[in-house]
């Protein structure tokens, strides 16, 4: 009866109860029994002036059971289980029947009730309600045992719901008309307005039997859902209600036992509603948390993709710019009256080299985001920096920047990925040239220094004579997407720091001695670098 086999087990009609929910159900059942024992000695005592409470009781039961029926119908529209539809009809029928029952109750609105019915009218409606609810619960339990198929999806669900509600309403109206205007045809349930007759004594045992059989059938399934567990509590409350109304109260209306029975009836009408509301709220909360977690994961992935694309664009921009410059130079050599083919050939060769370098940059960025082992070789850091500086000399000359170098001739070798480290040096040099661009009215100087960086490490310093960095900028300079350049993307320094740290080093910025800024990074010397790489690969 639970619909397609791949349907998520999220609804109460399919969700199995956990240990805490079972304990709670057992606790509620024991509390109901304890309350019965406490009320039993006083059940037969009559009360006076309590008739006015009956409309409030009827209204509470009506609201509870109509809301429960509405929630069950909503579950049926999702799960398409015929058993759920029968269960919804049970609560809808019971809730609607309480309206004429309350309106015909003698002594509440008038001596014969608001509808001016006969003496047997209220009892007839009570009998129909008393037997109808457990009977429909029994039908639900039997359908669960037999595994009745789900609602045919070809039939319109809205039409089925409307037809079911209309039929239930028609049945209730028929019972009401019979009870109000067919008083002569009704059994003699009541001896007077407060005491039942002998004929009524057949109704309580039948209702109790239906409750017990329905509970037994539910237990027989051995596949109790969370909803089934609380339906057992409803059946227990109904049995206790009947015991209090029919036996312990002596069959007298408005006694303590009679009102205690009504309290159990109100509890029975509220149990499933409270569980449905509670579990729906918890399910909504879990769903909301899941959606928030999924949104955070999606945003994190988008941020990673954005950072990756920005890194690639940032790193490829330099060789592309060099390719454009060399292409323009080649065109100028070829456009001369006497084309200089040798110079054009050299420019084209530089374009080819830059194209290969761009490919290596892309591969280098791609490997940064992979966990696999990357190829690293022994490197002469002085030679690597000098190679990058030669590529940057043309830009330095255009910016009228003097380049000074101070290489340590005894600098130990390092082990690393050459393309990535070249990109670090190239980015730092480019940033230094850009920092000195507003200072063309005075002498600009770029100083590159190598030397020892502490025990087992080497250090590279790239100093510019620009305007320097303020305190706020220094704190945020390595944040992703933070940049001081109008056309910048804010990924270069983040990219450089990631590479240096992946090589076991550290990158930071200091203020220059007189002006400007100094970017420094350290790398492990050859023996230390080998150990760092092995440690990284092992992790």
Number of helices: 14
Number of domains: 3
List the secondary-structure elements in sequence, H or E: HHHHHHHHHEHEEHEEHHEEH
Helix percent reads: 55-70%
Radius of gyration: 43 Å
| Average pLDDT reading | 82
Largest sheet: 5 strands, mixed
Low-confidence parts lasting 5 or more residues at pLDDT below 50?
Answer: 1-8, 529-534
Architecture (CATH level 2) name of the largest domain: Up-down Bundle
Explain the overall architecture:
With 539 residues, this protein is of the alpha+beta class. It has 3 domains: 49-295, Rhopdopsin 7-helix transmembrane proteins; 296-357; 372-538, Heat Shock Protein 90 (2-Layer Sandwich). Helix content is 63%, strand content 8%. It has 14 helices and 7 strands. It has helices spanning 19-39, 53-79, 82-103, 121-146, 157-181, 203-221, 226-248, 256-335, 341-368, 381-398, 418-435, 471-476, 492-502, 526-538, and strands spanning 377-379, 401-406, 414-416, 444-452, 457-463, 506-511, 517-524. The strands form 2 sheets. Strands 2-4-5-7-6 form a 5-stranded mixed β-sheet. α7 (226-248) runs antiparallel to α8 (256-335) and α11 (418-435) runs antiparallel to α13 (492-502). It is rod-shaped, with a radius of gyration of 43 Å. The two termini are 52 Å apart.
């Amino acid at each position: 009866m639970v619909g397609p086999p791949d349907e998520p087990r999220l609804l109460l009609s399919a969700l199995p109860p956990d240990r805490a929910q079972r304990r709670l159900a057992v606790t509620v059942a024991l509390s109901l029994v304890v309350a019965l024992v406490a009320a039993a000695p006083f059940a037969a005592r009559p009360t006076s002036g309590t008739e006015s409470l009956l409309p409030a009781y009827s209204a509470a039961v009506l609201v509870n059971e109509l809301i429960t029926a509405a929630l069950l119908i909503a579950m049926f529209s999702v799960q398409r289980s015929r058993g759920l539809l029968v269960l919804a009809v049970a609560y809808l029928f019971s809730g609607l029947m309480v309206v004429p029952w309350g309106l015909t109750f003698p002594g509440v609105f008038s001596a014969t009730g608001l509808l001016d019915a006969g003496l047997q009218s209220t009892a007839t409606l009570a009998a129909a309600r008393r037997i109808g609810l457990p009977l429909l619960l029994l039908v639900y339990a039997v359908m669960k045992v037999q595994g009745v198929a789900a609602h045919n999806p070809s039939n319109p669900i809205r039409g089925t719901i409307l037809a079911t509600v209309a039929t239930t309403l028609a049945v209730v109206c028929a019972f009401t008309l019979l009870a109000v205007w067919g008083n002569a045809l009704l059994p003699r349930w009541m001896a007077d307005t407060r005491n039942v007759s002998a004929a009524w004594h057949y109704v309580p045992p039948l209702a109790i039997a239906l409750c017990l059989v329905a509970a037994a059938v539910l237990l027989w399934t051995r596949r109790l859902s969370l909803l089934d567990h609380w339906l057992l509590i409803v059946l227990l409350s109904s049995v206790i209600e009947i015991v209090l109304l029919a036996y312990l109260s002596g069959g007298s209306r408005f006694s303590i036992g009679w009102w205690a029975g009504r309290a159990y009836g109100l509890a029975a009408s509220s149990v499933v509603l409270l569980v449905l509301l509670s579990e729906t709220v918890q399910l909504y909360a879990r769903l909301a948390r899941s959606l928030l977690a999924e949104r955070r994961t999606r945003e994190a992935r988008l941020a990673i993709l954005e950072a990756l694309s920005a890194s690639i664009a940032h790193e490829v921009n330099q060789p592309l710019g060099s390719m454009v410059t060399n292409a323009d130079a080649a065109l100028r050599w070829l456009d001369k009256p006497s084309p200089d083919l040798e110079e054009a050939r050299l420019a084209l060769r530089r374009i080819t080299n830059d194209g290969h370098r761009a490919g290596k940059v892309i591969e280098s960025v791609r490997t940064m985001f992979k966990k696999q082992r990357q190829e690293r070789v022994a490197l002469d850091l002085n030679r690597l920096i000098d190679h990058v500086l030669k590529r940057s000399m043309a830009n330095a000359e255009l910016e009228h920047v003097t380049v000074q170098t101070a290489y340590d001739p005894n600098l130990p070798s390092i082990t690393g990925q050459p393309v990535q480290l070249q990109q670090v040096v190239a980015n730092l040099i480019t940033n230094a040239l850009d920092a000195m661009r507003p200072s063309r009215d005075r002498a600009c100087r770029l100083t590159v220094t190598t030397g020892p960086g502490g025990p087992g490490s080497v250090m590279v310093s790239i100093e510019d004579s620009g305007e320097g960095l303020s305190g706020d900028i220094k704190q945020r300079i390595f944040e992703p997407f933070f940049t001081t350049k109008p056309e910048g993307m804010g990924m270069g320094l983040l990219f450089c720091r990631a590479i240096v740290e992946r090589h076991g080093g550290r990158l930071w910025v200091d203020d220059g001695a007189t002006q400007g800024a100094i970017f420094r990074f350290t790398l492990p010397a050859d023996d230390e670098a080998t150990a760092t790489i092995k440690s990284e690969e092992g992790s």
